């Protein structure tokens, strides 16, 4: 993918898969689905519980990776990795709202945020500056096979 295409794709609404080094169990990474936000040229933003395993491992490693994919043909993915460049503790409520609206829409986000309002004090925000990108776009292959 071109730079513009990969950034546009990552900015789309996908459940991301976050990976972070986990030295506890023989070095296999922790890999978990997450909601995230990204705007072209910016940082990847994720929020999680301050005391979660994910937060502890990100804090220790100082970096993480995130992969977003399109789960139906034509298959595409974008994977980024890089250092954590900022940690906001506690998480910003406006940013939490923006991420919830991104994934749920305004109405459902309001219900979700009300139901999880106590969680805000326990969440932190990590910002990662993408250093390495990996991408694949099977659109041209799909066009030749499925037409």
Structural summary, described in words:
The protein has a single domain (3-138), classed as Pnp Oxidase, Chain A. Helices cover 33% and strands 33% of the residues. It contains 5 helices and 7 strands; from the N terminus they run H-E-E-E-H-E-E-H-H-E-E-H. It has helices at 3-11, 53-61, 93-104, 106-115, 139-146, and strands at 16-20, 30-34, 44-49, 63-70, 76-88, 123-128, 132-137. Strands 1, 2, 3, 4, 5, 6 and 7 form a 7-stranded antiparallel beta sheet that branches. Strand 4 (63-70) and strand 5 form a beta hairpin. It is globular and about 45 Å long.
Percentage of residues assigned to helices: 25-40%
- The unreliable regions are 142-147
Radius of gyration: 16 Å
Q: CATH class, anyone?
A: Mainly Beta
CATH topology: Pnp Oxidase, Chain A
CATH architecture, please? Roll
* Structure classification: alpha+beta
Total strands: 7
CATH superfamily: Electron Transport, Fmn-binding Protein, Chain A
Provide the number of structural domains. 1
Strand content: 25-35%
How many DSSP H or I helices?
5
What is the global morphology?
globular
SSE run: HEEEHEEHHEEH
Short summary:
With about 150 residues, this protein is of the alpha+beta class. It contains five helices and seven strands. Strands 1, 2, 3, 4, 5, 6 and 7 form a seven-stranded antiparallel β-sheet that branches.
Topology record:
Layout: H1 3-11, E1 16-20, E2 30-34, E3 44-49, H2 53-61, E4 63-70, E5 76-88, H3 93-104, H4 106-115, E6 123-128, E7 132-137, H5 139-146
Antiparallel strand pairs: 1-2, 1-4, 3-6, 4-5, 5-6, 5-7
Organism: Streptomonospora nanhaiensis
Keywords: Oxidoreductase
Protein name: Pyridoxamine 5'-phosphate oxidase family protein
């Amino acid at each position: 993918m071109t730079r513009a295409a990969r950034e546009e794709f990552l900015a789309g609404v996908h459940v991301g898969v976050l990976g972070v080094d986990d030295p506890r169990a023989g070095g296999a990474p922790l890999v978990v689905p997450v909601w995230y936000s990204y705007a072209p040229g910016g940082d990847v933003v994720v929020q999680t519980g301050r005391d979660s395993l994910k937060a502890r491992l990100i804090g220790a490693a100082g970096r993480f990776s995130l992969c977003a994919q399109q789960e139906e043909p034509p298959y595409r993915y974008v994977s980024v990795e890089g250092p954590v460049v900022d940690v906001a503790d506690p998480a910003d409520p406006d940013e939490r709202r923006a991420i919830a609206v991104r994934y749920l829409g305004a109405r459902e986000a309001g219900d979700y945020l009300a139901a999880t309002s106590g969680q805000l004090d326990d969440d932190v925000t990590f910002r990662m500056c993408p250093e390495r990108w990996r991408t694949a776009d099977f659109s041209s292959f799909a066009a030749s096979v499925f037409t």
